[in-house]
Amino acid sequence: MAQGDMRDRPRHAGAGDRQMTALDPRAMRLANAETVLRALYGADALSQAAIATATGLSRRTVELILVDLEAEGWVRVRSTEPHASGRGRPARQYAFRSEVGVVLGIDIAHDRSTVAAADLRGRTLHTAVVPMPGEPERAERLAGTRRAVAEALRAVGVRPGQVGSVSVATPGNVNDKGAVDVELSMHGWTGVRLAEEFAPDFAVPVHVENNAKLAVLAELWEGATPGADHLLWLMLEGQYNGMGIVMDGVPYRGVDGAAGEIFWAKGLGLDALTASPLIGLGRLEPEERRAEATAILERAERGDPAALSEVDSFADVLARGLSALSWVFAPRYVVLGGWLAWALGDLLATRVAARMARNAPPFVAVRRSTLGPDAVVRGAIRAALDRYEWTAARPLAPERRPSPVDGG
Amino acid sequence: MAQGDMRDRPRHAGAGDRQMTALDPRAMRLANAETVLRALYGADALSQAAIATATGLSRRTVELILVDLEAEGWVRVRSTEPHASGRGRPARQYAFRSEVGVVLGIDIAHDRSTVAAADLRGRTLHTAVVPMPGEPERAERLAGTRRAVAEALRAVGVRPGQVGSVSVATPGNVNDKGAVDVELSMHGWTGVRLAEEFAPDFAVPVHVENNAKLAVLAELWEGATPGADHLLWLMLEGQYNGMGIVMDGVPYRGVDGAAGEIFWAKGLGLDALTASPLIGLGRLEPEERRAEATAILERAERGDPAALSEVDSFADVLARGLSALSWVFAPRYVVLGGWLAWALGDLLATRVAARMARNAPPFVAVRRSTLGPDAVVRGAIRAALDRYEWTAARPLAPERRPSPVDGG
DNA sequence: GAGATTTACGCTACCTCCTTGCATAAATCA
DNA sequence: TGATTTATGCAAGGAGGTAGCGTAAATCTC
């Protein structure tokens, strides 16, 4: 169930994509129960009849399944509500209980490790941050991250073994076994087997992915391009840049997660960005670089030619590379993310868009990411939720359930 | 069921990827029957016990399902065979009947239309070719293609309404509605709605796809890279070049099928190929250009510096562009296909590989396509098989069943 | 060649789950 | 207070899957 299972499978056993597992009445019940649960998950509260029409199951079956789900703790009965048409017996409203499971999103960044605990609808319950000043070694970084995990779990009152799903974001290439293949900017990070490192702490498999490839999930979830099918997401972070590629709604990893290394590719011209003063800001401390970027933005908005030409030449290089990539990928959106895009506001995006309008396919739209600095953690939470195993999981007991009031 | 249905869906209803449809006993039976059928499809012949262990169903259930499948005509009972261990009652062997369905692969190429009829295992039963000399207009080309369809169906003794699945290959961008958005090299072809054109002739929806995107399916099926997960497939045809991108085992289309237009992309340098004398050969007639290419190959193999430099400069441009793309896609293979790669043998591939070894990621392997001129038709047949609806289809009646002996 | 052994087949009994349909419950409206 | 409307609870019936036993059809042994 960890990574690397669905790769390199021969897709040509036969026709369409139905399941291949044997179905018995129990499996049927399980599948139908999950269907009901999903229907409730997607809505605020639903009556039996509403669930029946939404799922295609008979009302009787829905009724029986709800009895089970309520007994297990997945579902709460909201006291009969007034009702729409005004008359008739009011229907009982059933609601999914997001509190009965906790997932973790872990963002290991250069200067800090951030751990967010969220409920099953992805609402953040608590965020723990452990700063990582002075370029620490591998062991120190891992220990600090574990402290952040412990703090987050303590805050929401959940033991590690009860966590429903975990996703870890890291800079560098994450291979199909959940280890970092190449990461040059963090000490001793190349070769670290993150999935193995964290696996013993939890009862569920630990998912590990490159940070840009996770941030793009947040963009699809609660960002500028919800539910988009194909897009390119650029993480402009200064020295540490990356790309998230989404195709057919799914993030694409390539062989051992190596996809999207556009800054290593000769021929796209994006390696020229390294020389840009804007990229150079990445070397500064977070507060400092943000101030610098804001200063540039303000100067440019006042019409200062030096600031404008700085942004323009940056946009030139970016637009050239992204135009070429757009012919290859035919994405619906190109999204500019990372703190640099965040700090430069719409200035950069509009300028890149103007330049791409001439050279890229006409259907490609340029967007600025609407996500703030927590894009990567939110993406990790999204990935954790996507991997949460409804059928295997058991809801947390009432006394163990965290409430959103507890944490931050 | 045609194209364009699974696009742009929000992927974040909840967790993993189970089905969302209500399951009743009948659906369960249908799914289990399909599971049994698939097991038989993947093997030559199987006993009840073998099917039971392969599928996870009880032997009794397998037995009952086989009774149905045999009655419907899907399955044949091979007379009890000697048996492995030597003793014990010999098991009945059940075999999937590939003859009970016919699929069509249609390749509309510049100089001809080719229609191949195949059985459900993809064995070609008959191939009909209608030449298209003198750059005909749209109507003429469509009429000629219909003639080829009629001939192929006559040869295998099947009426159009009985065809189980159809896939059409065409040059140009095929949008999500099965129409050609842009195709400049064939008269009046831009805007032709191929799915609609052919739909009335058949009882099943007609799948339409760009020819390079279909050829790559043949490569995965019976070519140089069977079952590969990620690869880039180049169709070098002279004037009409294209690319097929496979990611996670699935061909990638992009917005309205526009993905892979690497020759329109400034910045990759591949537009420079247009100037190459090798590409120029595409303007000649098929026999002529093949002779010319073979002549170049022979001269190069004898060490002729002019021929070698011609191939080298071609390989240079190709390798530069493909190296850049390899950083972006991280494919396992880059495959050179099309008649040009076919004609130049391993010469081109080894030279491209040597140049890419320096600039591309180390895991990328360069391969020459092992498919001949029928790559596109075979890919169309593969696509048609992939879309064949087992559960909806009814096996052909015995008197209508084509036999491989009939056709070519 | 008859009986033992081995493996496969056919079938009955039973279980789970889904569906239909009707009687009952709980609200509003006249 | 009774009619109307909508929701709930429950009994009966049907479809499908599984377990397990007796029988069938081979080979092996003496």
From TrEMBL, chains A, B:
Coiled coil (residue ranges): none
Source species, domain of life: Bacteria
Pfam families: ROK
SUPFAM superfamilies to which the protein is assigned, alphabetical: Actin-like ATPase domain, Winged helix' DNA-binding domain
Region described as Disordered: 1-21
Family membership noted in the UniProt record: Belongs to the ROK (NagC/XylR) family.
Database matches in PANTHER family: BIFUNCTIONAL UDP-N-ACETYLGLUCOSAMINE 2-EPIMERASE_N-ACETYLMANNOSAMINE KINASE (PTHR18964:SF149), ROK (REPRESSOR, ORF, KINASE) FAMILY (PTHR18964)
Protein name: Transcriptional regulator
Organism: Phytohabitans suffuscus
